[in-house]
Write a structure and sequence with these properties.
2 copies of one chain form a homodimer.
Chain A (H helix, E strand, L loop, with lengths): L4 H15 L8 H7 L4 H13 L3 E4 L5 E4 L8 H9 L23 H4 L1 H18 L3 H11 L2 H14 L1
Antiparallel strand pairs in A: 1-2
Helix pairs in contact in A: 1-3, 1-4, 1-7, 2-3, 2-8
Chain A binds a DNA duplex (39 and 39 nucleotides) through helix 3.
Chain lengths: 161, 161
DNA sequence: GACACTCTACTCGGATAGTGATTGTCCGAGTCAGAAAGG
DNA sequence: CCTTTCTGACTCGGACAATCACTATCCGAGTAGAGTGTC
């Protein structure tokens, strides 16, 4: 049950975007160069974020990606779901359908208590992720590492040269 | 981030074991036949459960698997960890090590606030799973589906023929 | 009749292929910016 | 000098391989029990 590494990339990239001036698109190549990541593959993750409505993309010169909403309205769950997809971690193949006394009409995803217990855990996980916005994360970083935002912006302007 | 289907198999198999007489080993072939699963592959999952100390295995005739402890002392987290491994879902590759101003001596798994936020969610998930024991699940099933335990035992004795 | 030995059948256990998702890369469609030409 | 057109480079977007984990299977090591021969 390993999460895609794209989630980590997307998290840090979205966080970086919160510090860059709004209304200005940043191309995937520069976002990738920041962490020396393969640009084409990061682009793929950014596409997923764009499809999910987390970032907006503009093609052409001076184009790139930017946050589609204010950081207050982007939760960590939004980012994870954009990359990993909406389906829950536990996969219920309705094993009970193959057991004795199975009713083909029953939806065992709802009836099976194992499935329900796993879903409870899944919801707890999602609740925790949905409770933190990108703005919260940004504020935490600014408090704990005050130099970080400045360094980030400087590095990006340097890449702009 | 799809969980292995072995988790579902392990959950239902362990639950079935709670209803069968204690002190009596059940071979993997019978546990598999209950849900018409591939016996060799379920055996693999049971091996993982045995390595984790959730079930105990005895070879030879009249051998098989049985719960290693009472259901009260087996949490759902124990089963999930046995199959999926102990590492957390979010994979922190310490991206910040590749960013500007990175300190090679810093453990970014602890310092990175993204990593910490994801770990919080992971812990919430684990807490929920650790809060439910196999005995709880068994009791819930017996209350909601009183016929289920009897059906299970009957089916197993039928397979014994 | 009891005991010891052998032999067989049964079980787990790890080593071994097959398959699908994830990872990584590439090139084409579309678009904006800037230069150049004309008024 | 301003406007319009054209060109060109830049960007995303989806289509195309490579790699890895998961899925599935098989056969060998070990064991308990039944059967047989002996005392």
């Amino acid at each position: 049950m390993r999460m895609s590494e794209g989630v980590e990339w997307a998290m840090h990239t979205c966080l970086n975007l919160t510090w860059l001036p709004t209304g200005q698109a940043v191309p995937a190549a520069k976002l990738a160069a920041f962490y020396r990541l393969p640009a084409a593959y990061l682009n793929k993750q950014l596409q997923a974020l764009a499809r999910a409505g987390v970032v907006s993309s503009t093609p052409g010169p001076r184009g790139g990606f930017q946050l589609a909403r204010t950081p207050e309205k982007i939760t960590l769950l939004d980012i994870v779901v954009a990359i990993e997809g909406p389906e829950e971690a536990f996969r219920c193949d309705e094993l009970l359908k193959r057991g004795p006394g199975a009713d083909p009409k029953t939806d065992y995803r709802q009836a099976c208590l194992v499935s329900r217990a796993m879903r409870r855990a899944d919801l707890a996980w999602r609740r925790e992720l949905a409770g933190q916005t990108l703005a919260d994360l940004k504020a935490d970083v600014e408090q704990e590492y005050p130099a970080s935002p400045g360094n980030t912006v400087n590095r990006f302007t340097a890449l702009r040269a």
